[in-house]
Write a structure and sequence with these properties.
heterodimer, A: D-Maltodextrin-Binding Protein, domain 2, 4-stranded mixed beta sheet, 20 helices, B: mainly alpha, MetI-like fold, two-stranded antiparallel ribbon, 13 helices, membrane (chain B), MetI-like_sf (chain B), transmembrane (chain B), UgpAE/MalFG_permease (chain B)
Chain lengths: 439, 293
Amino acid sequence: MLLRKTAFAAGVFAAALTGASAAYAQTEIQWWHAMGGRLGEILQGQVDQFNASQKDYKVVATNKGNYSETLNAGVAAFRAKQQPHLLQVYEVGTASMMAAKGAVKPVYEVMNEGGFPFDPKNYLSAVTSYYSTLDGRMLSFPYNSSTTVMYVNKDLFKKAGVDTEKLPRTWPEVGAALDKLKAAGVECPMTTSWQSWAHLENFSAYHNLPFATKANGMNGMDAELAFNGQYQIRHIDNMGKWSKEGKFIYGGRRNEAAARFRSGDCAIMVESSAGYAGVKNEAKFDFAITNLPYYDDVPDAPLNTMIGGASVWVMAGHSAQEYKAVATFLNFLSSPEMQADWHQKTGYLPITPASYELTKKQGFYEKNPGTDIAIIQMTGKAPTDNSKGLRLGSFDQIRTIIDEELEGVWAGQKTAKVALDNAVARGNELLRRFERANK
Amino acid sequence: MEKRVVFRQRLLPFLLVTPQLIITAIFFLWPASQALYQSFLIEDAFGLSSEFVWFENFENLFSDRLYLESFKTTAVFSISVTVLSLGMALVLAVMADRVIKGTNVYRTLLIWPYAVAPAIVGVLWLFLFNPSIGLVAFWLKQTGYNWNHVLNGGQAMTLVVFAAAWKQISYNFLFFLAGLQAIPKSLIEAAAIDGAGPSRRFWTIIFPLLSPTTFFLLVVNIVYAFFDTFGIIHAVTKGGPGKATETLVYKVFSDGFVSLDLGGSAAQSVVLMVIVISLTVVQFRYIERRVHY
């Protein structure tokens, strides 16, 4: 009896001891992210895999709402000195994060100190250039990158007698398809999400037109917006006409339109390549993915499109031990297997050539036609100053301004020229303000 | 009529109001002074660098034509919300006051919406009226009416007004109902015996006797429409289409908490504070005189 009691007590003591020591040795890393729904589950899966793969570190991922809310939570936490180690920030917030020198710790530093060789050449140049300094040092860790593509509902195309073998490649061809779709009584011939990103930012890059001066802001904070050129005006004007004729149905400022495409209402949707997971999951019709349309009378079109999505920033103010944990985790995420898995499940780009090759080798693109459109469209040609990326302060607000002005065009209250001129003028005021606040 | 109570001791009255003063200081004076200070700064989002600029944030605001338009939007929004929610609540309260069977059920159901968070109210209404998936939008389309609040500014405004008013009806209802029950039945019976019909009884007896309640609710509702509605607007329209539903408080919210322009947002909240203080002063000085206690 006594023996049993002693043995029991010893057992408890031992358990307490090992439990305590395990808890002490583990370094915990906080990661605030903006991936909800299915994407959030996939992200959590990666984190669980990392935590199970070793014993020294533990990553705790927390969803903080959408991109703006996550950034906001990070900023507020930094002001209160409670910042997480990792913060996922959308591409629009890149300039703000880069300007916040005391708030972030550059990823290349973290990786070097952590003892992991970090070669930006392992990433697609279109991705690294977006998140690197001019001398090529990577400031944030590219996590989820996508680009704009066009989704087509083949069933509706067939119903309207539009060729489903040779899908429209240019905007005039899209226009012809819209005529047929409308005539066949399709309620929503075309819709789009992220209008500024698709129809001005990527439109400009794809046609080798400047969205802003100074290489779209990459070469300096004194850049000015320049997306009110003749070709942009012509495109927005066409979209306005289609809206008036009921061929283009506006769905909302973010990706509200995607629900309408997934339900089978809309025949054409311009959306992020990352919309693939949702479309594949829900669409009860035959769909295809094709490149973003362009105008073939513009000399350099099609060039390449730019990325959207987000990167992970390491926040300043933590211990060396914790940064070591961060470096280990980021290194884990960069493996071709993790990258390929993320790419295939979500529709985000394979941002390392190694993961692209791996996906090819696994035969994923043959089984899922159209999923490589985005990567081909982004990397097909060498980017110019107009298509490397955007780095503009207060860009979230500028996008809102663009949204407001474009809504005026879709509603028929403004001409394309007036709207774009307004948007440029209003946006420039914000750029000047940002320049001043971040001197 | 003398409404004041006279205290003999000097200390006691101060002691009695101290808790209220402390609350006011912590939850109003301190944040308000912070906002005032912040409104003189141009600062980056992380608070790493800031520049004291005196009134430049205010100058920027008032030279912005769109900011001035947002005053008009706010006026339309606030007046519509206040009138609609007060009117509906009064009708419902008068009806519920007459109900004999199942009083509690009716009352509970009518009070219920007040317990719903503003953002959820917005989402509920959005589900009904979403042009792509909304049930009511679908019915409207069946009748041939083209509902698309995503592009039609008037429809967007109607939708946020309905959502914001709907939420406030419960609160108003509660106060109106209490007000109605405080009116002596004998007065109404006497009027009835004198031959006054229901509508005459309402307008000449009940409505004037309810005026203290109505006045109180008027103040509360205007403050509600000015300050508490950004959650609904954020969920339903995000201020769009264009700037059709961007009220002053929504702009404070979106500039400050979405775009992280803290100086500009603080300046706007100071402007808003001045407006609401002056509105309340006006209400107490001029409208209260016409209230019978």
